[in-house]
Amino acid sequence: MKLTRSEQSLLLDCLLEMGDLLLDCGAEIGRVEDTLSRMGAAYGAGKPSVFVIPSLISISMAFPGEEALTETRRIHSNGNTDFYRLEKLNALSRQCSAEPIPVPELRERLEKVAAGRKPFPVVFWGSVLGGGGFAVFFGGSIWDGLAAAVFAALICLLQQRLGKTQLGVVASNLMVSFVIGVGVGLVTKLIPALHMDKILIGDIMLLIPGLAMTNAIRNTLVGNTISGFVRLGESLIWAAALAGGFMVALVVVGLLP
Amino acid sequence: MITVLIQLLTAFLSSLGFSMLFGVRRRLLLPAALGGLLCWGVYLAMDAWLGREFLSCLIAAALAVVYAELHARLLKTPATLFVVPAILPLVPGGSLYYTMENAVHGRLDEARIFGQQTLIAALAIAAGISFVVALRELHTRRL
Question: Which residues contact B62 (CB under 8 A, 6 or more apart)?
């Protein structure tokens, strides 16, 4: 299809939005670059040049016989994995690459995807099962698992509250880990049969950027060095914040009689 | 034996929990969670056979990606959706915690050992995934 000049700039805007959403639901850098260039090419732009790092997307594309269009967008995302939206975005990009839909319709579809979130009750019970499960997996008793499940519920609710503020991952990790550390410390003091380490390990799995770290190394190994290093730095700082919160909590609990 | 069974069961349940947490659609929950069980099973078998943590972790992660890619093709979804829950049991949450705990109590030698373990596991997972992804790229780019 032949796009008018205004449609072209709208398309560019849509691609930026698409990339923003993809990064926001935790897609890998290479995947985002790949998706955006493929979509641009499907709409008739010759060799779109797409550059993505975790905090920025830059797209430059030229339609035959016209001057190139370039736009960049600053990205603020905390990489909260959301496969619910990722799948919808993936389906949309596949459809567009196979047979481009009109640009205004693309815009509407993107807005629809942006508005839909993964259902909270499922997320809540998922955290409970995940935290509890991992406490037993790492050698805890069934009671440790139950305790970890209760604290996992607390983590989920806390994160939900903190996610609505502009706190950022570092500060919120620090706070959540402190609260959980003190809580678990107190409970294990009251009930000596529970193992503090196993409960905390189960709940840490919900908080550690283990995945971000793995993705960071992966990015570096496949050649996206800048993004890999940025993500690695980010995830190490998040882990340090987590450790800091737990450290203070352990010290506080240790001071109690 | 009973520990192995408990580990496999909890690996499955934990992967299921995280799949829910990450917003995997209901229809895909079972294959996603089974990936976690499979991956941990492979890790245990490899560890018993080879006794080398890095290698076992790498092979388990690589096979998890193969499993994920196959299911992604079959069910027409992005592969990440199956990779992430599958490799979760390999994520070194335990050693990360003990690194931190030992550091808090000033036992720096122990902290260093656990820190090393954490890093080795993360590297092995990443290398295992990248290996399979690179093979797939080689295959698809040629077509």
Answer: B128, B129, B131, B132
How far CA A81 is from CA of A52, A113, A251, B24, B80, in Å, comes to 18, 15, 32, 10, 10
Find which of B97, B132, B141 to mutate to test the A interface (most A CBs within 10 Å of its CB). B97
Q: Are A156 and A123 in contact (CB under 8 A)?
A: yes
pLDDT in tens, A159-178: 888 877 777 778 888 999 99
Spell out a b/e string for A144-171, using b for 16 or more CB atoms within 10 Å of the CB, else e: bbbbbbbbbbbbbeebeebeeeeeebee
- The CATH code of the domain at A5-115 is 3.30.1300
Query: Are residues A128 and B17, on separate chains, in Cβ contact within 8 Å?
Result: yes
Min distance B132 CA to chain A CA atoms (Å): 11
Q: Which residues pair with A230 in a beta bridge?
A: none
B97 contacts in A (CB within 8 Å)? 197, 200-201, 204
Q: What is the mean pLDDT of residues B13-33?
A: 92
CA distances from A37 to A31, A62, A160, B66 (A): 10, 12, 34, 26
d(CA A124, CA A161): 13
Which residues neighbour B69 within 8 Å (Cβ) at sequence distance 6 or greater? B79, B132, B136
Q: Which domain holds residue B38?
A: 2-142
What total number of domains does chain B contain? 1
Structure-token match 């880990």, residue found: A177
Question: What does the pLDDT look like over A238-249, one tens digit per residue?
Answer: 888 888 898 888
For chain A, residues classed under CATH 3.30.1300 are 5-115
Nearest CA among B35, B78, B66, B44 for reference residue B128 = B66
pTM of the model: 0.88
Q: Which residue is listed with tokens 């780019």? A: B141
What are the C-alpha distances in Å from A153 to residues A159, A193, A249?
A: 10, 21, 19
Q: What are the two backbone dihedrals, phi and then psi, of residue A51, each rounded to the nearest 5 degrees?
A: -130, 125
pLDDT at residue B137 above 80?
no
pLDDT tens-digit series, residues A222-238: 778 888 898 888 888 88
pLDDT of A21 higher than 60: yes
